[in-house]
Amino acid sequence: MKIGFSRADEAFREEVAQWMAQHLSGEFAALRFRGGPGDEHSFPAQRKAWERELAAGAWIGVGWAKEHGGRGLPISQQVIFHEEYARAGGPGRMGHIGEGLVGPTLAAFGTPAQQQRLLPGILDGSTFWCQGYSEPGAGSDLANVQTRARLDASGEHWLISGQKVWTSLAHEADWCFVLARTEPGSQGHHGLSFLLVPMVQPGVRVQPIQQLTGTSEFNEVFFEQAVTSADNLVGQPGDGWKIAMALLGFERGVSTLGQQMQFHNELDEVIRIAQANGAARDPLLRQRIAQAWAGLKVLRYNSLRMLCGAQDGSLSREAMIYKLAWSTWHRDLGKLAMDVLGDAGEVLEGEPYELSRLQALFLFSRADTVYGGSNEIQRNVIAERALGMPREARV
């Protein structure tokens, strides 16, 4: 595990920090520290413009292979970019799903034609993606997907019918990658396929879901005989589960270090308030703050262990524990934030009742241990896949 950075790496760190300081100004100054989890509804048009600004600076796809249009930077410099981006207050990425999930998946499983057609729009910040996995009856239990797709009589188009849920920023997306059942009568992991579906068409309807925070970045997406070209199938029919799992492996990649820097920013805010309002004198709160700081360090070192392995979408043991670890840590940070705020955390000044950063953290982090695979499912994954224990009984 590499803990330190070379002289060249530190020079690169300075380059990133300087670029961020210069460009997160003027029209983009208002985006600093905005658009993250719980705040993804904020400034969508400006954040799309920011993606184009990043593209102009060649900061999209820094870890992609050069043959796919990326910069092919080593892991150490990818880590530095994501950390410095978050440290500078870079806004939540509208292009994260495309760059972090779709791009690596197409590089690994897509045809040359699909790569040439779809990767440039991610790299230039003009095309945005959303994820079509979870369903009302298939959240953490992804193998229970019921959305169906069939080829039309001509064999040139897939027709998709079904419902997806918790689809982040679907109302802002141009494309959705959809896990659908293409083999009639199939069950579980079998008979699933991975389809790329254009969002702007009559067969796709997006309905917002209002959350505790009052925002609606999540959506339900209804596919009613939605159409996508036959050449938008990634891999072969029936490869969907394999590709979907690899994509989730890519999700546990180098951007996790940027996520942790955002957590660090939140913890710094909690500490600042504790020092200002006297909460830091409470011995129990002091202990919890220290535990939060130590826990964040453990998350960092585990992520570095994850990055020491193959970056091909496979899940190492270190990667299997990551979702359980960070979601529990972040939920506890939300509780700590409210206890540090005290009575001030319970009230707002008046309409329009805009939540403070830490109030939004508390409410949104309630969902951290549920979405993306609940804690209970994550423990099953660790037990069965990492430790080789008997599978949970199914009824």
Automatic annotation (TrEMBL):
Keyword terms: FAD, Flavoprotein, Oxidoreductase
Ranges of residues in domain Acyl-CoA oxidase/dehydrogenase middle: 130-225
InterPro entries, alphabetized: Acyl-CoA_Oxase/DH_mid-dom (IPR006091), Acyl-CoA_Oxase/DH_mid-dom_sf (IPR046373), AcylCo_DH-like_C (IPR036250), AcylCo_DH/oxidase_C (IPR009075), AcylCoA_DH/ox_N (IPR013786), AcylCoA_DH/ox_N_sf (IPR037069), AcylCoA_DH/oxidase_NM_dom_sf (IPR009100), Mycobact_Acyl-CoA_DH (IPR052161)
Family membership: Belongs to the acyl-CoA dehydrogenase family.
Domain called Acyl-CoA dehydrogenase/oxidase N-terminal: residue spans: 9-125
Protein name, UniProt field: Acyl-CoA dehydrogenase
GO CC annotations, alphabetized: plasma membrane
Keyword Oxidoreductase listed: yes
GO molecular function: flavin adenine dinucleotide binding; oxidoreductase activity, acting on the CH-CH group of donors
Acyl-CoA dehydrogenase/oxidase C-terminal domain: residues covered: 238-386
Taxonomy of the source species: Bacteria, Pseudomonadati, Pseudomonadota, Gammaproteobacteria, Pseudomonadales
A Pfam match: Acyl-CoA_dh_1
Cofactor(s) for this UniProt protein: FAD
Signal peptide: none
